[in-house]
Amino acid sequence: MLAPNPVRLADANTAAALFYGMIRPLVPYRIRGAIWYQGESNVTNARQYRALFPALIADWRRAWDIPKFPFYFVQIAPFAYGTASGPAELREAQLMSLSVPATGMVVTTDVGDATDIHPRNKQEVGRRLALLALDKTYGRAQVSSGPLYRSMRVEDDGIRLYFDHVGGGLVARGNPPDSFTVAGADRVFFPAAARIDGDSVRLTSPQVPEPVAARFGWSNFAPASLFNREGLPASPFRTDDWSDAVNAAPPPVVEAVGGDEPERPLDAAIDIELHEAVVENFLGVGVEWSAYPWWDISDADWQKVFRRLEYMRLPLTRVMLDTFWYCQGFDAAGEPIYTWDTPHMRKLYRLLDWCERHDTTVVIGEWGRPNGADLDLAVDDPRWARIIGDFLDHLLTGRGYTCLRYYNLINEPHGAWTGVTWDAWYAALNHLQAELARRGLTGRITIAAPDGDRLFTTRSLKHEPLRALTGIYDEHWYVRAEDVERGLLELYAREQLRQVGRRDPGKPFILGELGLVDGVNANDQQHNVYKYWYGVAMTDAAIQGLRGGLSGLIAWDLDDAMHFCGDGGEAMNALAEPLPTDAYARRKIWGFWNILGAEFGAPADEAMRPWFYPWAVLARTFPPGCSTVATDESAVDGLRVAAARIADGAGWHVSAAVANNGPWLRRIHLRAPLARGATGLGVYVYSDVDGDNAVDAWPSSRDPLGADVFPAAARVLSDVDLARGLVLCLPPRSIVLLTTLEFGAPVTLDGP
């Protein structure tokens, strides 16, 4: 109940005085102490809370004239607050309040609920508060606090952390403990491997050879993994004082729906031309997925990968292998020796079985000619074509796969490292086509080429006999982030499609591999996949490809655990060949995650990296079979829109992908002038306004079978008139994806 005349102050004590007004009627009564469980409403003003909360404690103590009565409080529990680092900074502000005498804090990171701001396990919260009171107020000495960070020390390539309140010792839930991150002088945080060493924890990360700062549990949903033996969790903390700018909350992305032209100035007005198809029967936005040839992964890890790809609704993938997986040479009569049940093949079947069940289009092929101890053949040896023919017959006829639609003979035949000449490659394609025809497979699988660079495509298009062999054109693009920002990929795509349309019209053109080269090291590792900006650049590259007319895009690649630097080259060309001892250190770090992180001491590396989120949502919202459609040029650097129409009965669903790959906030009016009918619209947002290398609007759709948190729409709009459109306020370096799929009714089109 509010007092009639609450005290009003002009500084940070104002809020404390208001609270005092609420409890003023209680002041005449005796008090032994207080317990406090609040703070959820302050996640967007955590800096202010550092002063506000101690002021409240002091004000209550003044009111009762008891300078140091006990004040025990509860740190806020995990919940989907919709802000990036705000909850972490609020917990930090509460942790700082322990500097006020006669206070104690209960940590609740292990009892939260992402869907309930009032988690139900209050009994454990009450028990921990009772421990504080019994220990500190009633003199029954016992451990009443979880570990609290005390200090750190840099040791060579790692950081050692020291704690108070370790009780009977530090223990991990999950072995080793996770939720630790470290950063170097660039202030970019990466997952760290943690090892408990007595009353300290040592952190290392291959991405941060010279760490200067560490954080623990610095997010909404970080698992409570570090405890003392008494079962009390460690408080989240950070060793740095770098500003995460939680008070600079991004403005709402959707500023207005429908209505007249907005009064505030726009950076662009962009129309989606739903009548004007760029590509009919789009194949999809996919990812390279190899069958884990060098390491075995557990059934649980297979299922984790499957669930993630089910969220993505993986429409298109490229699966490459080596001949030695299934053929071990020739017998005395010169017949190939096949083993269809090798460990490699069993994993390939598991992968293809999933693709078959989920109607995923597969581009399958061989990395290069067989050149191992058991089988060593020239590229243009007809026996290799016969072996491939038998292999494809086994998969298509013997196992009945229909998901296999395209075949790649050799990965990147243009490369000097392959040792392949143009004439030998062309001869090999002829041999393969003859083998497919002999088995009646030409209508069931199509040869893709050149699986290389733009120059090789140009040469292929000028070669009329080769054009007759192929049914789809496929290139690999590894580009610079600067070129993506400047919009050059759209120009590349348009030029290649112009050449295809002039010399071989009607055939689709896809990217079999797409990646960024910035920062790639000598072991073919791209550590920027851990960084937020990689997701912006890759998705912007895909948007440019959609605008330019590509029929499909495949990102390189799904999982670090699929390849190591040297596979198919210096090593691993026969079943009996041992895996190099340093293979894991040379794994190709390019993926959405590393599913073997826990097995090699870094469980945090199994988490989905930021760039999975926009790529997965793009795959869902531009599904196979849709038509990509024309959109206006924005005339603003870094600002691009791609769109699609998806048939649904007599109407159409509509999706749009917007990239603001520039340093400034942009406002656009986006509409589809010929759409008719009100519909619902889901809005997905990928942004990092506070610069903490994490997504601001953290997804809230939780996987019921695991710890993953999948992207969810940041906002769902109803009764949207797409013809009138909406005004979007786009944060810098952000991706916004909008779709009526799953959120609204199909629209009809006005006109022919």
Question: What keyword list fits this structure?
Answer:
752 residues; alpha/beta; Rossmann fold; Immunoglobulin-like; 4 domains; ten-stranded mixed beta sheet; 24% helix; disordered N terminus
Short description:
This protein has 752 residues and is α/β, with parallel strands linked by helices. It has 4 domains: 13-137, 3-Layer(aba) Sandwich (Rossmann fold); 148-238, no CATH class; 254-277 and 625-749, Golgi alpha-mannosidase II (Immunoglobulin-like, Sandwich), CATH 2.60.40.1180; 282-393 and 403-414 and 447-621, Alpha-Beta Barrel (TIM Barrel), CATH 3.20.20.
Q: How is this structure best described in words?
A:
The structure is a single chain. A ten-stranded mixed beta sheet has the order 14-35-29-15-26-27-28-36-31-34, with helices on one face. Strands 16-17-20-21-22-23-24-25 form an eight-stranded parallel beta barrel, surrounded by five helices. The protein starts with 12 loop residues before the first helix and ends with a strand. It is an alpha/beta fold and 752 residues long. The chain folds into four domains: 13-137, SGNH hydrolase (Rossmann fold, 3-Layer(aba) Sandwich), CATH 3.40.50; 148-238, no CATH class; 254-277 and 625-749, Immunoglobulin-like, CATH 2.60.40.1180; 282-393 and 403-414 and 447-621, TIM Barrel, CATH 3.20.20. A hairpin with a 7-residue loop joins β26 (627-631) and β27. It is built from 14 helices and 37 strands. α1 (13-23) packs across α2 (46-64), α7 (382-398) crosses α8 (422-438) and α12 runs parallel beside α13. 24% of the residues lie in helices and 26% in strands.
